[in-house]
């Protein structure tokens, strides 16, 4: 446990108020703010909480400055006024367990202190300097306390006159008063909450920006700001490529799918260049990215990828040994694996443990005649023991291994730290070079996404920076198709589809492959194979750059999260200047804040507030929100409340939703307890499909949410929706998004369950 202190560099007089009168209702209590379900054991960890200090989980009061909730993983902020009972020079003292304190009269803690209850003299850092207090004045105080999952939680503040022999007394109800009465205030009313140097929100933001984290995903990427670059004039792309019918073979339209089996028909896309969505910083705990089983890696590590060079005596090195690995002295890339695969070699310690013994070396008593490892005496040589020699000059050979090539595009539900599939560079260069022969000068390849279909052809989303007329840089973001096989009946299908509303490319019959008069040959009764793959423009597969996106969110009594969501939407509008999105909040009779008023006071470009009676029902709430949308040719994004959005989320949703063709289920990263977007430890939610983008016309066509079966519960409604989406012939695009997080949050009070009051004592 590591604890720290933010020292308040002010004198006590800064907090003196020149009046004595206090409302009787305020006396005998102090304000208490609780931040639940937040891991860590230090105040710095508490300050990473998204809602600290203004939006606690609970706002209540305490009758003395001595609190023991008998709980775990929480933070407390206790504040109010101290009223000295007489003019006296006194000392303040803090008692703590797994905690830290900030107080207006500084108590200098270092970050690792803990004490038993009532143990006032354990650390010098517990005690303040003597301070002269006057009974005619009141003094502001503030205590910050962080409890982890261990120990007996408690925090108390005591004081005593600065006289010899006197003992500390806990500051009791007779000597404290509230900073303010919060009983009648809504949870999103925060103007009354004091912010000191120890807990000011602006200071916290500055401090957090200085933190560094090892996650590669936090480093800048051209994709993050790609949406800011002007789009190429779409008319310039007309007739650049021949038109072709887009009919992938993996679509399962009208195919009978058993309940929740749609997961097996979702495929992953390949990405170039590397977007570093692989959670390499989490692989110390989870090495599922590699094909070896955890049991194998625990025992043998990665030595099978190494070939040990022969020793000078010509004897080959057989390594590893099945009965244990000697990891000392070997240059390896994974020290943790090596240590976990064998006992650590201690060449300077001579000890003997009988084979099969479970006795740990440190717990074994000394045998007769044996010398302690800490003794200064020299041990006599024991001829029946020998030390294993270590060859520090042992070398090995290794071949490059690209583990990405071993992955498939199946939706792997077992590994939640692997990133997006990586697309080979030579394939990207080949496709881009064919495309660039017909358009502007290439400046940069920003992003290429491939959906593989070896039986028909590969679909690519090309995102390029181009030089327009040698004057300005523009962006191109368009789908193209590398046709490998075409249906015998494609011409008839294409002519029929050509009468429908099409993309910006003029429909035309596919010509023979460029530069070749070779006749195609039949491969199956149903298809023919091109002598050379044909790069073409897939008809009916154009994404709309300015389509309206509706975020639909059902809520109930989640004031701090609703306020944060609204603030995030305001920030999204401010950063992107995008007017084409709206927020629809379906409120199940929240009584902790006025959601409608908060929306009215916000700067989101469009919003809709809907109030619904009864218990919270996610499916019916989402359906109610979608039903209010009049434009069926707009995108619905079924959303969750506890999401951190990247600034490019609007364009990301738009380009992966195509009416009648594509729906979008981005993979969100679930943050661990105590983690934040600047400190993103966690895992990819590979099983969840609750965050879902789809055109309203497609949503209505498949029947919307299943509100009958999932009336009073949720969990599984997203998989059931996925089954019907796939059965109606839509593809579901599945990608991990950079900087797209699901906040860790308390689940207490979220499922209409009454809270059982704990017994006293």
UniProtKB/TrEMBL annotation:
Start and end residues of each stretch annotated as Disordered: 337-374, 495-526
Location(s), subcellular: Golgi apparatus, Golgi stack membrane
Pfam families in the cross-refs: CHGN (PF05679)
EC annotation from Swiss-Prot or TrEMBL: 2.4.1.244
Catalysed reactions listed for this entry: an N-acetyl-beta-D-glucosaminyl derivative + UDP-N-acetyl-alpha-D-galactosamine = an N-acetyl-beta-D-galactosaminyl-(1->4)-N-acetyl-beta-D-glucosaminyl derivative + UDP + H(+)
Transmembrane segments: none
Biased composition (Low complexity): 516-526
Gene3D superfamilies referenced in this protein's UniProt entry, alphabetically: Spore Coat Polysaccharide Biosynthesis Protein SpsA, Chain A
Domain of life: Eukaryota
Polar residues bias: start-end ranges: 337-349
CC annotations in GO: Golgi cisterna membrane
Residues of the signal peptide: none
Classification via SUPFAM superfamilies: Nucleotide-diphospho-sugar transferases
GO function terms (MF aspect): N-acetyl-beta-glucosaminyl-derivative 4-beta-N-acetylgalactosaminyltransferase activity
PA14 domain sequence ranges: 37-174
Keywords noted in UniProt: Golgi apparatus, Membrane, Signal-anchor, Transferase, Transmembrane, Transmembrane helix
Main subcellular location: Golgi
Membrane topology label: Single-pass type II membrane protein
Task of the protein: Transfers N-acetylgalactosamine (GalNAc) from UDP-GalNAc to N-acetylglucosamine-beta-benzyl with a beta-1,4-linkage to form N,N'-diacetyllactosediamine, GalNAc-beta-1,4-GlcNAc structures in N-linked glycans and probably O-linked glycans.
Family note: Belongs to the chondroitin N-acetylgalactosaminyltransferase family.
Name this polypeptide is given: Beta-1,4-N-acetylgalactosaminyltransferase
